[in-house]
Write a structure and sequence with these properties.
0% strand, Four Helix Bundle (Hemerythrin (Met), subunit A), Tetracycline Repressor, domain 2, mainly alpha
């Protein structure tokens, strides 16, 4: 390629690189998981023929709000991210984007998502989504460096997307919405503690006071993981007990819950990084499999 051609292509390459960095700010894989749980909540809450257009509007608004919230979280945590090996190459700590750019981008698409939901879906769905963003940014993020209880608001914000989906489908809350919330809430505790156990040295460098950092011996972490896995095993059966799903789901949820509990018990005993990784992997199998079972074994109403 000639030098003039290289010079002409340079701005395009830089623009593509910046676009990729802005996209990276939104963590597309996390947004995808949010959309999956929202869609499942919408489907389970739907009665009769599925309103595909309303679902599409719900997912579009949710994607914008979720991506913006994650971008704002990276803006707020840019100094911490610079101290951790697993996050130091993100666009902000690596200097590829300016903080003001990330702030403007995050605020813009978060507000766009919430407003879009209010206009295209309904105000209640927009409110639940705003609460999701608010709890993540103004509760979870600020207290990560102060208390191990930060996992609770983090789990709350992560458990609200299926509630938003349910509300978008039905226009109100119901037992099914709160069961979905409880399942997602309980699932996040062992999942996040498993990740924290694997990366506890990284988190310690950044001053993030997750339980495996504060109590490195792992006894309290093990108890929290096992107790929440046990609670998840029980709560995971509720969709059938309230008439939302059938017996196939019940049996599948029982097997999946026992498998996750077994991985949690093994980690509590061994307190090894290998078993922490196994627990994280098991949690990443558990949730999608459970959601698939819910979807395919929904009881019509």
């Amino acid at each position: 390629m000639s030098l003039p051609a290289v010079a002409l292509n340079a701005p395009r390459v830089r623009a593509q690189g910046r676009s990729a960095d802005f996209l990276m700010l939104t963590k597309p894989r996390v947004v995808l998981m949010v959309l999956v749980t929202t869609a499942v909540g919408y489907y389970l809450g739907s009665a009769g023929v599925l309103n595909s257009w309303r679902l599409l509007h719900t997912l579009l608004g949710t994607a914008l709000a979720a991506g913006g919230t994650i971008a704002l979280n990276q803006y707020l945590e840019r100094d911490r991210d610079a101290l951790m090996e697993r996050t130091r190459l993100r666009p902000l700590p690596d200097g590829r984007l300016e903080p003001q750019e990330a702030l403007t981008f995050g605020v813009g698409i978060t507000l766009a998502g919430v407003v879009y939901l209010g206009l295209a879906v309904d105000s209640l769905t927009a409110l639940v989504t705003a609460l999701t963003a608010g709890s993540y940014l103004f509760l979870y993020t600020p207290i990560k460096g102060k208390t191990t209880l930060c996992t609770i608001p983090g789990a709350i914000s992560g458990a609200l997307p299926p509630v938003a989906g349910w509300v978008a489908a039905r226009g109100d809350f119901g037992p099914g919405a709160w069961v979905l919330f409880a399942i997602l809430f309980l699932w996040q505790i062992p999942h996040s503690l498993g990740i924290a156990w694997v990366y506890r040295e990284d988190y310690a460098r950044a001053g993030i006071r997750l339980l495996p950092v504060v109590e490195p011996e792992g006894r309290s972490t093990g108890r929290q993981i096992v107790s929440n896995c046990l609670a998840l095993l029980a709560v995971g059966l509720l969709p059938t007990l309230i008439g939302l799903t059938g017996s196939v789901y019940f049996l599948g949820a029982l097997v999946l819950g026992m498998g996750l509990l077994g991985c949690g018990i093994i980690l509590a005993i061994s307190r090894s990084v290998v078993d922490a990784r196994r627990l994280v992997f098991a949690s990443l199998v558990y949730l999608p499999a459970l959601l698939v079972l819910m979807t395919f074994n929904k009881v019509p109403f």
